[in-house]
Amino acid sequence: MQDTMTDQAIAVALGKYIKHHRLQQNKTQTQIAKAAQISRSTLSLLERGQTVTLSTFIRVLRVLGQLHALQTFEVQQRPSPIALAKLERQQRQRASKDGTANEPNSISW
Fold this sequence. Notes:
Blueprint: H1 7-24, H2 29-36, H3 40-47, H4 54-64, H5 81-90
Helix pairs in contact: 2-3, 2-4
């Protein structure tokens, strides 16, 4: 999808996505609607790019086994560049003389 698409064009594209996957699974609107606990007419509206609730869209994706399509929206925590730089500075640059310094189980008498 492009940034220049209108809201209506995006809704139509989402509807086509739903219809494509429904037909790929050889399911009728009635079958999907019943499994999603929505009316057939609501599913028809969704497939035509008309306004439906987000909850309805998610229910239909779940029934079609397409929830993975929402992974794009998952927020992933990544360390900031400053935090990465600090971690790099903390990494060991050289080995100690005897090779045992800072080892968890080393005993020094």
